[in-house]
Design goal:
The complex is a heterodimer. Chain A is α+β, with helices and mostly antiparallel strands. Helix content of chain A is about 25%, strand content about 25%.
């Protein structure tokens, strides 16, 4: 099982929730905007953690995409 | 070690009237500052620089849960909502409980759902302005309070008939009078009891509202238990009313004091979003975050903190730090600078931020547009603020809606 972790930098409001919840999966850039530490997730616990963050994110900026989805277009 | 002390004693009456000179002193002279909190006479720390406050809010070596607090802090009756349902609010939980409750709550509070409240907000604001115009002694606090009361009422699915009771309870709950810890507890209990009544009501008559959604919210086998439901209702009432009320009121005050910014906002409606961010930065209602407790002996911002040490993140001070914003004490609605911490940061960042932004961005310009000649009826120095540590709360803010009153 593998998933792709995606953060929509335009939707992100730099709340810092993701990096506080799972610093192993998310970090904040200089402007406070979130980005994934790594995009490909294979570990089941990592995938669950990423999905938890996606559900908690106040701006719905985090998504965990299925293996076949190659990430968002454009 | 110096014998110098800040210009006012922290969290006592003079401080509440104008905390900003004291915060400036602290940022310059004692950015991590130890003092005795007036309630309980307990030693606590306060962080005042932006970088420290933001790091503190995101640092998982600290917990909001008073289970990690020193014994003297808990014995001193300082833990928020101690002995009531409020002690289990989302704001105080750590993962994994925090994650579970936040997910379930967030599922009812999505950006899309909030966007649906834009139209009702405009209507609520216009109605509140109509009522204000009818008042013999118009008071901006009445206007500012009516907006979150009606909106939160609508969102939770009932009329906030006990709105004034709730505001009064919130004020008592976070009051810093050393002799009143019994009163604090009673006030928290009153808020929780109201939450229980609302849940019972919505169980009988479910509707298309957040209370009903919270009762029904499920994530696989997970759902909110009774205690968590009550705590969630309590936190929505506590966090949704007084914060936004004071954000609206202090921002109207800021604009009455600055005719140039006021004119600019009227001439440039397109600035409403940057203006809203600036209002939240400049005097955003929430004065400080909840206490953070060191989970272990640790070093933070150059000071050693034993396990259990309570630290207050000063939101109001961080947002005026000149290290982050040039000319930080100047209100500038065109500011396009870095992000503030008005909604916190990290795990406990504000769940209702989108709603607060919506309310402020409609309500603040609308009152100035409706009453272009409005002036304060008393000088700003004569406005008084409650002795309340969480929110900077104006007691009464009378205005002349059509300029100077006849003498």
């Amino acid at each position: 099982m593998s998933r792709t972790l995606h953060v929509d930098g335009r939707a992100c409001i730099a709340s810092g929730l993701c990096a506080a919840l799972h610093p192993d999966l998310f970090r904040l850039n200089g402007a406070g905007v979130a980005e994934p530490v790594r995009r490909e997730l294979t570990d089941a616990d990592d995938i669950t953690s990423a999905e938890d963050v996606a559900d908690c994110c106040p701006s719905a900026a985090v998504s965990v995409l299925g293996a076949e989805a190659g990430g968002p277009g454009a | 070690m110096t014998a110098m002390a800040p210009p006012t004693r922290l969290f006592e009456s003079d401080f509440y009237q104008d905390p900003f000179p004291t915060y400036e002193w602290l940022r310059e002279n004692s950015p991590m500052h130890e003092f005795k909190f007036p309630m309980g006479d307990i030693p606590v720390w306060i962080a005042t620089r932006f970088d420290d406050v933001q790091r503190l809010l995101g640092d998982t070596r600290f917990s909001n849960n008073p289970a990690f607090a020193s014994k003297e802090f808990v014995d001193g009756g300082m833990a928020v909502g101690q002995g009531t349902a409020v002690e289990r609010i989302l704001t105080m939980l750590d993962p994994p409980d925090h994650t579970r409750v936040r997910k379930l709550t967030m599922s009812t509070f999505t950006p899309r759902r909030i966007a649906q409240w834009e139209e009702p907000t405009v209507r609520i604001v216009e109605e509140a302005l109509d009522r204000l115009a009818e008042q013999e002694r118009p008071d901006v606090m009445d206007y500012a309070g009516a907006i979150p009361a009606h909106l939160i009422g609508g969102i939770l699915g009932f009329s906030l008939s006990r709105f004034q009771d709730m505001l009064h309870a919130i004020e008592r709950a976070f009051h810093t009078d050393p002799d009143h810890d019994e009163q604090n507890r009673d006030a928290f209990e009153e808020i929780a009891e109201y939450g229980r009544e609302l849940i019972a009501h919505k169980r009988r008559e479910p509707g298309d509202d957040i209370t009903s959604a919270l009762i029904q919210a499920r994530d696989g086998d997970e759902r909110l238990n009774e205690e968590e439901l009550v705590a969630t209702m309590a936190v929505l009432i506590m966090a949704g009313l007084d914060t936004t009320r004071n954000l609206i009121a202090t921002s109207v005050l800021s604009l009455l004091e600055r005719p140039e910014q006021r004119r600019l906002l009227m001439e440039r409606p397109d600035l409403k979003d940057s203006a809203t961010e600036e209002f939240i930065r400049f005097n955003g209602g929430v004065a400080v975050g909840f206490f953070r407790f060191a989970r272990e002996d640790l070093e933070f911002a150059g000071v050693r903190l034993p396990a259990g040490t309570p630290v207050i993140p000063s939101i109001a001070s961080a947002n005026r730090d000149p290290r982050r914003w040039p000319d930080a004490d100047r209100l500038d609605i065109t500011r396009d600078g870095p992000r503030h911490v008005g909604f916190g940061h990290g795990l406990h960042n504000c769940l209702g931020a989108a709603l607060a932004r919506l309310e402020a961005s409609v309500a603040i310009p609308a009152i100035l547009r409706r009453f272009p000649a409005m002036q304060a009826a008393v000088p700003a120095e004569e406005l008084t603020y409650d002795d309340m540590w969480l929110v900077r709360s104006i007691q009464s803010f009378p205005v002349h809606l059509n300029g100077d009153a006849p003498r």
